[in-house]
Amino acid sequence: MRNPRQNEGVPLRLLIVDDDDFSRTTVSAALAGQGFTVMATASGVADAMSANVSEIDVAVLDLDLGEGPNGIDLAHALAQVNPALGIVLLTSFSDPRLLAASVRELPPHSSYVVKQSLRDIGILVEAVRATGSPEAEGSQTPRVPLTDAQVETLRLLAYGLSNAEIARVRVVSEKSVEQAIKRAATALDIPSDATSNQRVALARAFFSLTGATRHRHAHR
User: Fold this and answer.
1) Where are the domains of the chain?
2) Buried b (16+ CB within 10 A) or exposed e, 173-212
3) Fold for the domain defined by 148-210
4) Which CATH class is domain 13-131?
5) Sign of CA dihedral 185, 186, 188, 189
6) Comparing 13-17, 107-111, 140-144, 148-152, which segment has the lowest mean pLDDT?
7) pTM of the model
8) DSSP state of 155
9) What order of strands is seen across the sheet that includes strand 13-17?
């Protein structure tokens, strides 16, 4: 049986992981103010794994934790220690594939919350309570309307790579890159005409989907 504490009226115990000090402090304070018990906070994977994970009910994790393992990697590592753990990925990325070329699916009883969708703290509170519930079993990872190849092509394009460079990185032909760009533009409803620069528009669309004007890692 998963966490019985919520049914008993005992506050859920949380681990908050975010490599940004301000975000980590803000989220911790906000959730503590909603009646949860913040047992530990961490800025990265090593600190998170050193927490007493068996005593945590729900881990609230950022997706991008800098160089090295990401939040989904950490979620799986934490779940190995505590299979009953609820996971909330709190991130600016509309789709985890926008962070890197290959990411894992979320572990069981997980939620994925996009920061831009947080109109108020209640949305995050609901996600924490849902993943901490004994009935929470499934998980669903959001996807933008692009294939893996299109996402990777768009990511590399957004960081300024030419079609030839993208082809080299992805080990495909330049023709394949051109087709991926064309299909990504169609899926994102970005026109190709003389009045606009399609590559610039695609780069802007990518960074908009990551929740940033420009992100720190190209992940080449």
Assistant:
1) 13-131, 148-210
2) eeebbeebbeebbeebebeeeeeeebbeebbebbbebbbe
3) Arc Repressor Mutant, subunit A (1.10.10)
4) alpha beta
5) positive
6) 140-144
7) 0.83
8) H
9) 37-42, 13-17, 58-61, 86-91, 110-114
